[in-house]
Write the C-alpha cells for this entry.
Amino acid sequence: MRMISIKLTEEEYKELEERARKEGFVLLSDFVKSLIFSTSSYSHDSQVDNTQVVSRIEKKMQDMINPFTSQIDELKQKIAILTERIEILEEKLGEIKDTTKDMNKKPKKSFESKSVNIKSEPQHKKTAIDILRDQGVIYESELKLNNPDAFFDKLETQGAIVITTDPERIAIDSNFYEEFKKKIASISTSDEIEVQKYLTKQEYKLFQKLRQYSVIYFDADSKSWKFVS
C-alpha cells in the first residue's frame, strides 16, 4: 500500500476534522480519500457533459444549415429554368427579325412585250397547323387570340394533340408528341436537372408545363414518368 503525506497547519487540520465529522466519517483518512476520488469523478463527469454539449451544438448548427442548403438547390433549379426561358425568347426574337427582313424585300416584277404585266406569285401563307409542325408545341398563354376556342378546335380537327388544363391549352404536333412520350417513359429519375439532359429545349419546356399542371407524374414503383389517365 502506498502513502501520501500532506502537511497542514493546526487550523487546517482541525477544520478538516470538523468537516469529516459532519460528513459522518470516523477516520480522517477515509474522508480525505473521499474528497480525492469524488473530485476525479466530477472531472470525468464534466468531460462527459462537455462532450454532450459539443455534440448538441453541432447537431443544432447542422439543423440550421440544412434549410439554407435546400434553398440553394432550389435557387439553382430556378436559375436553370430562367436560363432556358431566356434562350427560347432569344430564339423567337431572332425568328421575328428574320421574318421582318423577308417582309421588307420588294417582289420582283416581270415584263412581257410592250405592255407591262406585273405578275405577283402567290405566296403560301403558313397556317396554324404548319406553324405547329415547325415548332412542335403551341401554348395558349403565349398567344393573343380573339377566338381561342375556334383556334384549338381547328388544330385538333387537323390532327394536333390538344391537352386542356386549368391555366391554358397546349397544342402538340402528333409526331412531336409520340417522340416526347417515348423519351419520358424511358427516364428513370425524378430529378428535373437530370431529366433535362435527356430532352431537347422544346421537350423540356413541355415537360415542365405538364408536370406543373399535374398532367404527368413520377411513378416511384416503376421508376418512370407517366401521364395522368
User: Anything to note?
Assistant: Helices lie at 10-23, 28-104, 128-135, 148-157, 174-186, 192-196, 201-212. The longest helix spans residues 28-104.
